[in-house]
Design brief:
The chain has two domains: 373 residues, Divalent-metal-dependent TIM barrel enzymes (TIM Barrel, Alpha-Beta Barrel), CATH 3.20.20.150; 52 residues, no CATH class. It is 45% helix and 10% strand. The chain has 16 helices and twelve strands. Strands 3-4-5-6-8-10-11-12 form an eight-stranded parallel beta barrel, surrounded by five helices. A two-stranded antiparallel ribbon has the order 1-2. Helix 11 links the parallel strand 11 and strand 12. Helix 3 packs parallel to helix 5, helix 5 packs parallel to helix 6 and helix 11 crosses helix 12. The two termini are 37 Å apart.
């Protein structure tokens, strides 16, 4: 340990399903082979620097509840303590990746130049720490939502100076991500939306956002960054209307601005729910369009309309998520980032470790169930049976014909459809056999 915060906590080990050790893996065995690949290589776990280390335990009605040795977070010495503790946690968990925003790892300076210098110092420290550890960077990103300068958006801001500040910030973060060997770079627009159309030029804001993302891709190629550029669908939080509302909206945006071959999606469970979808829906749609990149694994409280960012604990939901990920060929450069935070009353260092241990176990259980379903083939067989009619020569010929010829066949009585059961409950019962 480089700092006493996690003192007394040993690296977490796999002990099997019968273990009663709250800080041991029961299901996550990184070396277990699932569908021909190590579990660690399938899941590609990442710790989120922001919720695990920058979040202070506040909520809309109450302030800080956590007491951490790196508070207050407005001092470079504290930022180094935070980094020491973060890498101690990475050592304890043994996960292969972590993720950050620029504002998570350094305190804000009085100018961009000062913030840049502070950021660079911490990136130097990260590079030094990573040299002697297995942990790598899954992705970096820029926080362009917390500071008051971003209150009307970043790339969509009506002030061109804010657009310029955003471009400089993303360049800084992309350079650092590239330097640290990051496997992706993520953009998500917490403020890329509007509160009212009374003061919003919607068409211009969308065009500016499209141009900004094209600049990101151009810079990616200029510096030779071989990772994937990702955008994250995010609805109604905190802006009333957000331009990256859900997977379908993002796909339409990417196609409009000629980016569908350059950018993929980082999909979060909590955001899917806020958009009125299921996580599996968003994943299946992204996979169908060839744009599934990476995921933020968390959950929402279904009694709340807010993005509560809780650690996952619902095996059936997680299993169906990994079912679609595995069916699409698995992650490429992406992975499973725990964009999740402790509850305000979970105060101890042990709680932070236990939360990740439980989440990693839930994901491992979900992965094993998903793999078992795919290997059994029951869902695929049911799907093939339901759509078998489309494999006939007549059905394929119909797709190449026109309304007149189709009308003639139906009118002559050659077509007499009868409803068939969708067998939904049978299929739901089938899934429950595995989870």
């Amino acid at each position: 340990m480089t700092h006493p915060f996690f003192e007394g906590l040993s690296p977490v080990r796999y002990e099997g399903p019968d273990s009663d050790n709250p800080l041991a893996f029961r299901h996550y065995d990184p070396d277990a082979v699932v569908m021909g690949k190590r579990m660690e290589e399938h899941l590609r776990f990442a710790v989120a620097y922001w919720h695990s280390f920058a979040w202070e335990g506040g909520d809309p009605f109450g302030g800080q509840t956590f007491s951490r040795p790196w508070y207050p977070q407005d001092d470079m010495a504290m930022a180094r303590v935070k980094a020491d503790c973060a890498f101690d946690l990475f050592d304890i968990l043994g996960q292969p990746f972590f993720c950050w925003h620029d504002a998570d790892i350094r305190p804000e300076g009085d100018s961009f130049a000062e913030s840049f210098d502070r950021f660079t110092q911490i990136i130097d420290l990260f590079e030094e720490k990573m040299a002697s550890r297995k942990v790598r960077l899954l992705w970096g990103t820029a926080n362009m939502f917390s500071h008051r300068r971003w209150m009307a958006g970043a790339s969509t801001n009506p002030d061109p100076d804010v657009f310029a500040y955003a471009a400089a910030t993303v360049k800084m973060c992309m350079d650092a991500t590239h330097r640290l060997g990051g496997q992706n770079y993520v953009l998500w627009g917490g403020r890329e939306g509007y509160e009212t159309l009374l003061n919003t030029d919607l068409a211009s804001e969308l065009d500016h956002m499209g141009r900004f993302l094209n600049m990101v891709v151009d810079y990616q190629h200029k510096i030779g960054f071989e990772g994937t550029i990702l955008i994250e669908p995010k609805p109604q939080e905190p802006s009333k209307h957000q331009y990256d509302f859900d997977v379908a909206t993002c796909i339409g945006f990417l196609r409009k601005y000629g980016l569908e071959g350059e950018v993929k999606l980082n999909i979060e469970q909590g955001h899917a729910i806020l958009a009125g979808h299921s996580f599996e829906h968003e994943l299946a749609l992204a996979a169908a369009e060839g744009m599934l990149g990476s995921i933020d694994m968390n959950r929402n409280d279904y009694q709340s309309g807010w993005d509560t960012d809780q650690f996952p604990n619902n095996t059936p939901e997680v299993a169906l998520a990994y079912y679609h990920i595995l069916k699409a060929g698995g992650f490429g450069t992406g992975g499973t980032n725990f964009d999740a935070k402790l509850r305000r009353q979970s105060l101890d260092a042990t709680d932070l470790v236990a939360a990740h241990v439980g989440a990693m176990d839930i994901c491992a259980r979900g992965l094993k169930a998903a793999a078992a379903m795919l290997e059994d083939g029951g869902l695929e067989s049911a799907l093939a049976e339901r759509y078998a009619g489309w494999q006939t020569d007549g059905a394929q010929a119909m797709l190449e014909s026109d309304f007149d010829s189709i009308f003639a066949r139906v009118h002559a009585g050659e077509v007499a459809p009868q409803p068939r059961s969708g067998r939904q409950e049978i299929l739901e019962n089938y899934v429950n056999r595995f989870v």
